[in-house]
TrEMBL record:
This is Conjugal transfer protein. The chain crosses the membrane at residues 58-78. It comes from the Bacteria. Residues 1-42, 342-377 are annotated as: Disordered. Keywords: Membrane, Transmembrane, Transmembrane helix. Residues 1-12 have a biased composition (Basic residues). It comes from Streptomyces humidus.
Length: 377
């Protein structure tokens, strides 16, 4: 029995050895010349070459897929701002004269009413030391407006105020002195919108640097020639004059509808409530070349008119007015196309200098005597 067991073990061991030898022979048989290392030291095999091919294909597709992204990146880089480009400089807003002008107008009105003993009434405007010689209440500005403003230094303004001055005598009788002109120096604090120079400030302040100075009236000019060279008078025989008369009567008195005299699509409204009860045309000028127009020209012809009227108010008082109108012909009649903003002037006729009638200051005009400054000695 023991001999048989030893024999079986020997047979199994022999089979294992033969199997190992067979595996080695198979492996040696499957090797090919391409499996041998090449001259570079890399081992080239069929599987290895297949992997390299797959990697190449993947890389090619990756480049194709990334093409649009790379193109967009290049476009954005080219269209972006240059590194050395300078940024645009925002221009500073000019200082506004509205605040200083309004302050100067109030100061002039208070100055005209003030007088001896009421100098403190000017303290909100001017804090200097002064004494007024005129009796208070002898003058007043019934109307005033700012005619000119100029910034002489940053935050410092020269303002010219026109005032319609009326004087009152000791008995209270009023006498109109006419329009007088006063120039005032005003310092402003705050932002540019208030006339100042402090960009960070939100509040504004103003102060006069002296009492007002009465100055001469500004230069007057003579207007250029108007474009209405043909005088039509007030004849009712002219169709264009009749259209102007009917339209203005409806416009000012409400006697009838405006649609009877206006072109289709024209949007004009009469004055409401009507300020006048009656109207009379006193003169008409237009820019036509003919001396008379008894017939309406072809459709679409445009005519510009300047019409003078006397309108009578509800109390029976006549008021003289002028209207610039544009008429257009249609279907054998004139129609009003618009009420113009201003009379038309000839393009080659600029305004010219004209003498201006100045107003002589009244003997009752206020005078101010500066108080003597304290001596430093």
């Amino acid at each position: 029995m023991k001999r048989q067991r030893r024999q079986r073990k020997a047979d199994k061991k022999k089979q294992f050895v033969e199997a190992e030898v067979w595996d080695e022979e198979v492996e040696e048989h499957q090797e090919s010349p391409t499996d041998q290392p090449d001259e570079t030291g890399w081992k080239a095999s069929t599987a290895h070459m297949s992997g390299i091919s797959r990697l190449a294909r993947v890389g090619a597709w990756a480049l194709v897929a990334s093409g649009p992204a790379l193109g967009m990146l290049a476009f954005l880089s080219a269209s972006g701002p240059a590194q050395g480009a300078t940024k645009p400089v925002v221009a500073a807003a000019p200082a506004s004269s509205v605040g200083p002008a309004g302050f100067a107008e109030l100061f002039v009105a208070a100055y005209l009413q003030a007088g001896q003993g009421t100098e403190r009434d000017l303290a909100p405007y001017y804090s200097g030391s002064f004494a007024l010689a005129v009796k208070p209440g002898t003058r007043e500005a019934t109307q005033s407006t700012v005619l000119a403003s100029r910034e002489v230094q940053p935050g410092y303004w020269s303002i010219t105020v026109a005032a319609d001055v009326t004087a009152h005598d000791d008995k209270g009788k009023a006498k109109r002195l006419g329009v007088q002109y006063f120039r005032v120096g005003i310092q402003a604090t705050g932002p540019a919108s208030a006339g100042g120079t402090d960009k960070a400030a939100s509040d504004a302040g103003y102060a006069a640097t002296s009492l007002p100075a009465q100055v001469a009236a500004p230069a007057s000019v003579k207007p250029g020639g108007l474009a209405y060279e043909t005088d039509r008078g007030s004849s009712s025989a002219d169709p264009s004059v009749e259209t102007a008369r009917g339209f203005l009567a409806a416009y000012l008195t409400g006697s009838t509808e405006l649609d009877r005299y206006t072109s289709p699509g024209t949007r004009l409204q009469p004055i409401s409530p009507a300020p006048y009860a009656a109207l009379k045309v006193t003169g008409v000028q237009d820019d036509s070349s003919g001396s008379g127009q008894q017939k309406v020209p072809a459709d679409g012809t445009v005519l510009h008119q300047l019409v003078q009227v006397d309108a009578t108010d509800q109390a029976g008082s006549p008021v003289s007015l002028s209207y610039a109108l544009t008429l257009k012909s249609r279907a054998g009649r004139w129609e009003v196309a618009s009420v113009d903003d201003a009379p038309a002037i000839r393009a080659s006729s600029p305004p010219s200098a004209a003498p201006h009638t100045t107003t002589t200051p009244s003997p009752d005009a206020a005078t101010a005597t500066p108080s003597p400054s304290p001596s430093n000695s």
